[in-house]
Amino acid sequence: MRATQWEFRNRTWLFVAIFCIGLACYWFDPHNSGQALAEWLRGRLAFPWVNRQQSVVRGIFLMGAVVVGIGAIIRTWAGAYIRANVLQDSKVRTEKLVADGPFRYTRNPLYLGILIGVFGAGVMCNPVGWAVQVLLAIVLVRRLILREESELLRTQNESFRAYCRAVPTLFPAFKPRISASGARPHWREGFAVQLNWWGIAMANVTWAISLRPWLAFSVGGAAVIMSLVQKHVLKTYSQPVATAKSVR
Questions:
Q1: CATH number of the domain at 5-247, out of 1.20.120, 2.40.128, 3.30.2390, 3.40.1350?
Q2: Which of 81, 123, 198, 212 has a Cα-to-Cα distance from 54 of 20 to 30 A?
Q3: Average pLDDT score over the chain
Q4: Half-sphere exposure of 133 (CA within 13 A, CB side)
Q5: Taking the CB of residue 169, how many other CB atoms lie within 10 A of it?
């Protein structure tokens, strides 16, 4: 089933809620996934560095940061081809079909980046929270994709059908499936709009360096709050501009 208009309009808050649900699982299980995975590795690997618990934990959180960073890179790349006011709009924007950059490899690079990022961020939860977080993200992403693509199919019709036949839904192709149209990326906007994901990657790095969960959560939380404030400011100041352009 596709997402409702309410789900699409509040998709940012729903993803924030998914993170909160994952972290809330600490209430009944205080064991961190990164530390649990480190203990499991120590019992099965014979490398000298594995014998040091703190080294293994640091390595796991650094790997988690790399995974989140990969998701952030994909979303930044995609966001550079979709202007910030479109990316953060509460409505499905179907007036233009974007088929440049990562959209030549997958139809939904932004959602692919979210799933990768959610998986990498899971090391900050307990094992149950990690699994719940990933499962909820998959369900929500699937529903959002169905809504967006149904709207694009309705407005773009045959051009979108041809795009769907050439480019996979989510898992990217190894080679670009369509030719580039020559659109110019806006990298500054791409990085700015993905501040929350870069912040979550830094939260993993902070945990790896300091081994202090509260400090890592502070870094990640600050980045998410800054991103939400940025989104609110963008929506507030971009709406009058859009209205003025439509009048002309």
A1: 1.20.120
A2: 198
A3: 86
A4: 29
A5: 14
